[in-house]
TrEMBL record:
BP GO terms, sorted: DNA catabolic process
One GO molecular-function entry: nucleic acid binding
Domain of life the protein comes from: Bacteria
Protein name: S1/P1 Nuclease
Length: 288
């Protein structure tokens, strides 16, 4: 990986509005690391070997936060293009659709679904450079996580809950931040502990999670966001935590399992559907 990618970290369907760079973070650092750590437990040995050159000595948990850390990096892509990769705004009850014309160049990507598919295409294209594949793996790991945060398929008018103020034990925050960070931090666990606690080897549950596609994940998030909008009051207390923390844990668990399944689908020809890979046919892997 070029030094400017590796070391500049510290300098770090219906589209209707672009979030500002500070608005569209999802899951916070710990949430993304939990998802990366979970995925590490479920990728095959073949996949581990295949992605090794793209990790550049880091783990999936480590690279999971990179696209957020790069938000402040100089350059037109990071300053004007990258934020739209992290979310999608869609009307309720309408199917999300993919614009294939936007998945062939990173500058053309206009939402998270297109970003996921651009990354998948780049990783499986023998003509892609090492830098392009390293970039795409980092984004893919991150965007699978983002796609499972309900408010990354939220409403454009409130910027995915960012403009909805709530009080969390007398601390002023917003609905988006509550879900991406505070409900996770409230568990007082490190990302490795959290990942260990919610990991699963339940084959039936894993099969259920993997019988899906990136579009499914975003539709799930949109449906959850619509319910959360209706059930959230300005004051957040213990009952809210009790009722919604299981949802947060499930979304993190699903994201980790599905990330592993997606990587196995892309990199391990022997991956078995509904066991170690997503239920996606060849066309879906490259174009859906």
């Amino acid at each position: 990986m070029h030094n400017n990618l590796k070391y500049s970290i510290s300098s770090a369907l219906l589209i209707s509005a672009i979030f500002t760079s500070t608005d569209s973070y999802a899951w916070g650092q710990n949430g993304h690391r939990i998802i990366g750590k979970l995925a590490e437990s479920h990728i095959s040995e073949t996949t581990k070997a295949a992605i090794l050159p793209f990790l550049d000595g880091e783990s999936l948990a480590q690279i999971s936060t990179w696209p957020d850390e790069m938000r402040s990096a100089p350059g037109e892509f990071w300053q004007k293009k990258s934020s739209r990769w992290h979310y999608i705004n869609a009307a309720p009850n309408k199917a999300l659709s993919l614009n294939h014309a936007h998945t062939h160049a990173k500058e053309s990507v206009s939402n998270i679904l297109e970003g996921i598919h651009y990354s998948m295409q780049t990783l499986t294209d023998a003509k892609s450079s090492l830098d392009a594949k390293q970039f795409s793996l980092r984004f893919l790991v991150h965007l699978v996580g983002d796609s499972h945060q309900p408010f990354h398929a939220g409403r454009s008018e409130d910027r995915g809950g960012n403009k909805i103020k709530v009080s969390f034990f007398r601390e002023e925050t917003n609905l988006h931040s509550l879900w991406d960070t505070k409900l996770i931090e409230n568990q007082n666990l490190s990302y490795t502990e959290f990942a260990q606690f919610i990991d699963t080897n339940n084959s039936e549950l894993i099969a259920d999670y993997l019988q899906s596609s990136p579009t499914t994940w975003l539709e799930e998030s949109r449906n959850l966001a619509n319910k959360i909008y209706k059930s959230t009051n300005e004051e957040i207390g213990y009952s809210y935590i009790y009722n919604n923390t299981p949802i947060v844990k499930t979304r993190l668990q699903q994201a980790g399992i599905r990330l592993a399944g997606l990587l196995n689908t892309l990199f391990d020809p022997s991956a078995k559907e509904l066991e170690t890979a997503l239920k996606m046919n060849t066309d879906q892997q490259t174009a859906n």
